[in-house]
Amino acid sequence: MKFYFAPMEGITIHTYRNLCNEMFPYMDKFFSPFLVTKKKTILNAKELRDILPENNEGIHLVPQVLTNNAEDFIIMIRELEKLGYQEVNLNLGCPSGTVVSKFRGAGFLAKPEELDLFLAQVFDVFAGTHMKLSVKTRIGKDEPEECYHLMEIYNKYEMSELIIHPRTQKDYYKNKPNLQVFSDACKISKNPVCYNGNIFTVSDYEKFTSQFPQVTMIMLGRGLVCNPALTAQILGRGTIDKQILREFHDRIYGEFKQLYSGEKNILFRMKELWCYMVYLFQENEKQKKRLMKSKNLDEYEAAVNGLFRECVIDSSSGFRAN
């Protein structure tokens, strides 16, 4: 099985990726938080810093791009090619309202004819080159039945991978992944299929692989942010405990303090992480509330110390979706 780390905006930046790769080195690919194509500039300073090869040494990083304009996408791919990248991923999965309203991400799925033309233009340029193009998609904008027409479109093009998150945009991250439609998509697809969705524990992984033994690639997101040792546990090469998680926390906290200016920004990023990691701790409600209500770094550090001191880690636990 190949394991991919899903892009999560504001979390899986280069400092986080590098630390994960050092402490939990069982990831075949990392995908960058999406790069948005622009008319006046290709990459802004923040985006460039995140994907510079020297900031991602020793990891297999795939830049992900958010766009619905073929010309802009081609220009972006050329720029990434100059940096040495040989694979680029197209984001057709982001369900955010601000993204979808511009018919980007999962919003582009509502315009299948335009999407088909977009892919035709892009693959016409890069077919037969060393540049690999992959797509991360949902199964539709509003209804899962849209997937079947989308698969007809995707099958026209030779992708390196088709990463399928079997929810619609309307589902956002609610409801369960539609495994029946995913099963149909696997049978239909002419491209290699990677699964993404709700693999939060070793048990989730074992249940999925028993149902889909033919799938050889899995993308993990929220489950890994909750438990960065999840792939190690799946492979039987390690687990998570307080000492390991404390080291991981302290090191990423130190990195974020160097990277972001102002306590407010640092707190926001660390609280984002704890929205996931807190699920590893049993009976965490009191310390969780204290942590999320912290107004400065002193209060935050005291709350984190209390969480590690008073709560027990359950290594078999994982993120729990609403």
Describe it.
This protein has 322 residues and is of the alpha/beta class. 45% of the residues lie in helices and 14% in strands. It contains 14 helices and 10 strands. It has helices at 14-23, 45-51, 70-82, 97-100, 112-126, 146-154, 179-188, 202-211, 222-226, 230-235, 242-259, 263-277, 285-292, 297-310; strands spanning 2-5, 29-31, 35-36, 61-62, 64-66, 87-92, 132-140, 162-168, 193-196, 217-220. Strands 3-5-6-7-8-9-10-1-2-4 form a 10-stranded parallel sheet. Helix 8 (202-211) links the parallel strand 9 and strand 10 (217-220). The radius of gyration is 20 Å and the shape is globular.
Q: Low-confidence segments, ≥5 residues, pLDDT <50?
A: none
Oligomer: single chain
Strand order of the largest sheet: 3-5-6-7-8-9-10-1-2-4
Strand percentage lies at: 5-15%
Gyration radius from CA atoms, angstroms: 20 Å
For the terminal residues, how far apart are their CA atoms?
28 Å
What order do the helices and strands follow?
EHEEHEEHEHHEHEHEHEHHHHHH
Overall strand count: 10
Mean pLDDT: 96
Largest sheet report: 10 strands, parallel
Helix/sheet category:
alpha/beta
The backbone outline, from C-alpha atoms, is globular
> What is the helix content?
40-55%
Give the number of helices.
Answer: 14
